[in-house]
Every structure is written in C-alpha cells, then in structure tokens.
C-alpha cells in the first residue's frame, strides 16, 4: 500500500473528512495520512481506540512517535491523557489500550538508525521556547539537532510564517488555518519538502499546531524488511 508516498511534493490531508479503516485489532480504526507497506509499514496515521479495545503486545522494530489527541491512551507502563507525547525507540514493546477510548496521532518506522532516545511527556510538559511572530506560546517536545518537534499556539487572525530548510510536517490540533486559499480544520495534516515555507492565516479562533522540522525521511532511516 502506498499513500502520499511522493516526498518531493507538498501534501495536505483533511483527515476529519476521511473514513475510518478497521485495523487487525477489534475496535481499533485508522485514518491513513502517509503509508508505504502493508500491515508493517512506514506510516503516519490517526488511530481511534473504542472503549475497552487493545492491541496485542508488539515490538516497535522501527520506532513509534505518538501524540494523544482525545481520551486517555494506556499501556502497562501508565496512562497518557490528551496532550501527552512520547517516543518509543526501536526495540521497545508494549500493550496499547484504552479503557474509556481515545484517539492518537502516530508515526511508525520513521526513526533514524541508532536513535534510541525515549521520551514520555505528560500534558503541559516540555521546554518553553520564544514564540515566533503571530504565536502566543511554543513548547519544544523533542530536539536532538537532527529534528525538532514542538507545539505552538497561534493567535487568532495572525499570519504566521514557518521557515523550512530541512522539511516540515504539521498537524492542526484545534482552531483553523488558511494556507494558499485552502482552509484547514482540526485533524488536518500537511507535509512540505525542504525549501517550501509555510505561511498560514489563523482563523477567528486561536490555533494549536504540532510541528516537526526534520527531513521528511531521514537518509539513515531504519530499513524495513522486504
């Protein structure tokens, strides 16, 4: 399966308008944003857990990066309410579940070879940064010099510009934006190749944005088995 796999082209997906696709686990559905591969895939998705659903224990051979969007995501290590962010590096394993149901944003098989940094942040945790023009707050969730992940709050009615020298991925968590005449609502996801900057006009409500400043696929990204 190949979905939005041409990394040389800008892409925007209005995920809230997509249908949910069942996963192999009962009660767990997905909206696929980027995917290369079958059930084991290099992928970016929105995943919804029905109350009481769970995935069997599995190992993330290619690493896993998650932002909890709604509800409480759980595994045997703890509970992660909406706003939690974590990175499970290659080789880690767990039993993901949601007693009351939840929705997460997840990226799989996009870690670099040798990247073993594990992070677990509860809502509100992270390093506060100086907001860019048009933003009211910025929180760095992860920065190792090769990629930076942050949450930003953008003021209503402002036009915000984000430079893009390495590659840029963004996800609208709340509020709305207009980019080149296209309106983006919550759960809209976009990806821009290096050199294509992001200029967005915020709607009448404040917008919260997840941003990843990094190569769209690291040159030394872990390889999946054929």
From TrEMBL:
Superkingdom to which the source organism belongs: Bacteria
Domain ChrR-like cupin: 9-111
One Pfam family this sequence matches: Cupin_7
UniProt-recorded name of the protein: Cupin
